[in-house]
Structures are given as structure tokens and as C-alpha cells.
């Protein structure tokens, strides 16, 4: 529970820096601890701690030495009843907390949760109306040489020839029901990862298709390092998929959520990544 890193919180929303190995819910990995349950448990424990702190303050302010034993027993029973009611209410409130967008199991970074049904509905509305902005950092195979940002406009659909929800671009023979998908790529740095050419990119998705970044980068010949689905041969050696949700901004009708997650793709965190050439002003990225 202490591993949860909160990077933004308000009355309505909370954004955490999701670990790449933690699923968002039980559907992604039924046997694993998931971030949704971790957040709900955190809020439940917070509420209980606040309740006990308030009770201690009340007791210290209302201490009486001449109370009868029957009065003390009555107050104790009343406190137990109040605590049980509070625990039940807190559990119900914690269950209302839900994520407002998804991240793949192997993707780390900004993950937003709403604290109420209304907050969740307004955040979802903002995503539908394109009022949510997401930027990702990624390390890809090979050196990308382009003097300008890259715009990828390639439809994505389900791979009908594969088991499970594996996606593909529309040039694949068995691509089922492809839908438009657009991705904007800025080249930040070129260098090496584990001794092989690699490029660090800043990616903004203009649409939200499943596995969109991974597919689009593979489509231009630079698959994400560690992607065990869309690399050929399978890239199983790296310890994770090198894809990180760096920032999230949601312009909801309730408030503006603005969160920035720490960059994990730095040499001090992963010595296998060795940047050699800066291609784009990093600024806050």
C-alpha cells in the first residue's frame, strides 16, 4: 500500500504514478493485486485513521473523572456502534472510486481515479470531447532520424487471426473493423539501450485505440523496447515495456486535472539506457 505514489489529488480526483507491473483491475490479472483495490484500501484506511484521531481529540476535551461505571460502559457501546456505522459508510464510499481511463499492464505512469460517480462521468465526458491530453515517454529500437515531428495516421483494428485482443494496423490481411488512429511523435534523444541503437520519444495520442502507440511505432519500423507482442522476433530480454504515461491533463467541467509523473527512462534509474544526442529541447519532459 505504501508503494502508491500520489502525484495529484483534489476533492474530486486522484492521479497516481502506476507501476508497470501492477494491473489496473482484476480483469487484467485476476490473481494479482491491482491498483484499483490498492486505491480503495488506501482511502478506507485514511478515513479510519481520521475517525480515530477525531475521537481521541473529543475524549481529551471531554475527560471527566466522576463518571459512573454504567455511564462509561454506555459510552463505550455507543462508540462501537458509531465505529461500525462509520466503517460501513467508508467502505461504501471507497467502492465509488473508479478509474476514468485505462493503461496497459506493462505501461507505467499517470493513472486518474474519480472519487464519485459525478466526477467519473465528467472526466469520461472530457475524454469523449477530446478535452483530455496525454503524453507518453518511450524508448524504441533503432535511431529515428527526422528533422521534424512525426505524424502517424494509420487505422487500427482487431487481429482476427490471433487469440485474444491483439490489435493490428489496417494493412494486415485479417484486420477486423479498423478505426482511425493518429499519433504525434517528437524525438527527444538518440543513444543506445543494452548496447543497441535506441531513441527516446515523446508521444501524444490524438485518438485512444488499444495498443495504439506500440502499433504505430512498430508500423514505422521502430517498435517499443520490451514489447513482447508487437516485436519480431519477440523482445523478451528487457525487464519491462519501455512505455510511460508522462503527463495527463483533463479539462473536466468540474476542474482541470494536471499531473506529471517522474521520468523512469533516465540513466540513473536504468543504466542500460545511454543517451548520446539530444534532438529536442526536453523542457519539463
UniProtKB/TrEMBL annotation:
<dbReference type="InterPro" id="IPR006145">
    <property type="entry name" value="PsdUridine_synth_RsuA/RluA"/>
</dbReference>
<comment type="similarity">
    <text>Belongs to the pseudouridine synthase RluA family.</text>
</comment>
<dbReference type="InterPro" id="IPR020103">
    <property type="entry name" value="PsdUridine_synth_cat_dom_sf"/>
</dbReference>
<dbReference type="GO" id="GO:0000455">
    <property type="term" value="P:enzyme-directed rRNA pseudouridine synthesis"/>
</dbReference>
<dbReference type="GO" id="GO:0003723">
    <property type="term" value="F:RNA binding"/>
</dbReference>
<feature type="domain" description="Pseudouridine synthase RsuA/RluA-like">
    <location>
        <begin position="69"/>
        <end position="219"/>
    </location>
</feature>
<protein>
    <recommendedName>
        <fullName>Pseudouridine synthase RsuA/RluA-like domain-containing protein</fullName>
    </recommendedName>
</protein>
<dbReference type="GO" id="GO:0009982">
    <property type="term" value="F:pseudouridine synthase activity"/>
</dbReference>
<dbReference type="Pfam" id="PF00849">
    <property type="entry name" value="PseudoU_synth_2"/>
</dbReference>
<dbReference type="InterPro" id="IPR050188">
    <property type="entry name" value="RluA_PseudoU_synthase"/>
</dbReference>
Amino acid at each position: 500500500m505504501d508503494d502508491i505514489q500520489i502525484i495529484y489529488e483534489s476533492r474530486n480526483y486522484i492521479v497516481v504514478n502506476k507501476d508497470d507491473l501492477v494491473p489496473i483491475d482484476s480483469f487484467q490479472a485476476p490473481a494479482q493485486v491491482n491498483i484499483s483495490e490498492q486505491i480503495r484500501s488506501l482511502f478506507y484506511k485514511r478515513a479510519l485513521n481520521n475517525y480515530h484521531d477525531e475521537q481521541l481529540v473529543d475524549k481529551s476535551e471531554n475527560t471527566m473523572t466522576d463518571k459512573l461505571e454504567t455511564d462509561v460502559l454506555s459510552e463505550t457501546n455507543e462508540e462501537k456502534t458509531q465505529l461500525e456505522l462509520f466503517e460501513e459508510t467508508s467502505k461504501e464510499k471507497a467502492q465509488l472510486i473508479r478509474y476514468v481511463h485505462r493503461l496497459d499492464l506493462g505501461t507505467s505512469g499517470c493513472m486518474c481515479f474519480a472519487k464519485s460517480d459525478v466526477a467519473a462521468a465528467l472526466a469520461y465526458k472530457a475524454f469523449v470531447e477530446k478535452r483530455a491530453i496525454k503524453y507518453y515517454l518511450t524508448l524504441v529500437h533503432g535511431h529515428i532520424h527526422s528533422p521534424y515531428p512525426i505524424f502517424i495516421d494509420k487505422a487500427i483494428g482487431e487481429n482476427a487471426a490471433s487469440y485474444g485482443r491483439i490489435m493490428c494496423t489496417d494493412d494486415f490481411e485479417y484486420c477486423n473493423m479498423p478505426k482511425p488512429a493518429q499519433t504525434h511523435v517528437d524525438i527527444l534523444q538518440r543513444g543506445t539501450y543494452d548496447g543497441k541503437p535506441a531513441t527516446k520519444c515523446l508521444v501524444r495520442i490524438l485518438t485512444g485505440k488499444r495498443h495504439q502507440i506500440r502499433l504505430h511505432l512498430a508500423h514505422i519500423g521502430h517498435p517499443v523496447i520490451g514489447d513482447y507482442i508487437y516485436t519480431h522476433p519477440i523482445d523478451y530480454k528487457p525487464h519491462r515495456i519501455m512505455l510511460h504515461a508522462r503527463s495527463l491533463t483533463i479539462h473536466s467541467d468540474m476542474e482541470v486535472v494536471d499531473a506529471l509523473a517522474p521520468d523512469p527512462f533516465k540513466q540513473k534509474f536504468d543504466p542500460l539506457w545511454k543517451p548520446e544526442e539530444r534532438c529536442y529541447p526536453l523542457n519539463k519532459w
